[in-house]
Amino acid sequence: MTLDLMIHGGYVITMEGPGTGIINRGAVGIKGNKIIAVGEEQDVMNRYTAHRYIEAKGKAVMPGFVNVHMHTGDAIVRSCAQDLPGKIWRFKGILPLLGVARDEDFAAASRLNIVEALRSGITTFGDYYSPMTEIVKNHIQLGTRAVVSGMINELPPDVSVVEVDQLIPLDPAVGQRKLTDNRKLVQEYHESFGGRITCRYGPHSAAMCSEEMLREIKHLADQDGVGIFTHLVQTKEEVTQTRLRTGKAPVALLESLGYLNKKLLAAHMTYASLDEVELVARSGAALALCSTSISVVRGALPPAQEFAGFGGCVGLGTDQVCNCTNMFDEMKYAALIHKYKNHDATIFPSWKILRMATIEAARALCMEDTIGSLREGKLADLIILDLSGPQMNPIYERPIRNLVPNLVYSALGNEVESVMIDGNFVIENGRLTTGDEGAIISAVNRAAARISEEMENLPWTAGLPLAQWTRDGYY
Q1: CA angle at 287 for the pair 283 and 325, rounded to the nearest 5°
Q2: Residue 272's CB: how many other CB atoms inside 10 A?
Q3: Which helix (H) or strand (E) holds 438?
Q4: Confidence of residue 159 (pLDDT cuts 50, 70, 90)
Q5: Tell me: the pLDDT tens digits for 25-69?
Q6: CA distance linking residue 285 with residue 279, whole number of Å
């Protein structure tokens, strides 16, 4: 058989087996959008010829990263609501700012965030935002693999009036509009573009939806045969609000509504009890661990270690753009913060963290049969990394191999040279092939300039902590 492409001579990190499955001098053969062969270089090249060969000596070839939880549109207010007390971050921080932005601003920011993520080797996006019927077009155009959902809540249009210690007045009309948009997304885009785009439903949280809305979402997800994204016990205020509204804690409420199963990807669980963590883990639901985001906005750490200890599946996500969307950044921080938490350097070793960014993340999205590792028959989603930088050297192959620790603890993300999704290079030799990167950056900066101008004329803007710190010269 003649293949379309043969990548050979580099370190092939398959992520097969219980660890990382490295082949020191390997080859990956691709035809169409599928991986046809993975193995030792000489063996694969003896069995197959190809129309194109890529010499990968001094490079690593591995599956693309799977980002299980992110909100690409939030990049419109990158680092505009940070360093705040966790209690006010949402309703007195980011949500008022997002209320000034328009749908076209979120779409422009999403394009920027997707390109940023691609450059760090992310090939599959668990993107959870609104208006997703517009944002999904970015994934289509830029060639990503995306699991997308809307973000359904019933929050009033003016969140500046919300006091988190009092029952939030929900607006059913807002919720129905957002649910309708999510249903349209599922009907139009689920399993479209050769399966590259799949859809879910996305209730924002148990605190931001009525029990009736949560029931309706679950019914539609079952009817349409799709999964669900949600934030679960992300904040103490979520627990308070859910108890005030329903008399139940968030986990108990979702359990009573039938949410807890393998089709649920729950983000954070930061303030869950150990019993709740065990219940969700044993239900088959997966956990999105977004260590950098939760540390920035809450100064806290989700119970991923405990969740995994109960047999649950944990995948890494970058969440909203607190600093950057870079899976190398996420891997390093997740490893180090758990070691610090335990005062134990053996916790979350680099090989385990790398799995949580690839094959375990794919499992969290119920996609482990098609992505997350390099194996014959899987989809050709992979990245090529240049190992020539000083931070990646020296390289040891035996009796100790140091490639995986270097990727987790030393890599910066700019080692990613080429990114392939579904058999097509979306970044090749450092160049984005599916869009005009300069134009994408310019568009989001134009949107930010307009938002800045509008905010200056709003009476409540002067009271924002970051606005005060800017006037005082700290920012």
Answers
A1: 165
A2: 25
A3: helix 437-456
A4: low
A5: 999 999 999 999 999 999 999 999 999 999 999 999 999 999 999
A6: 9
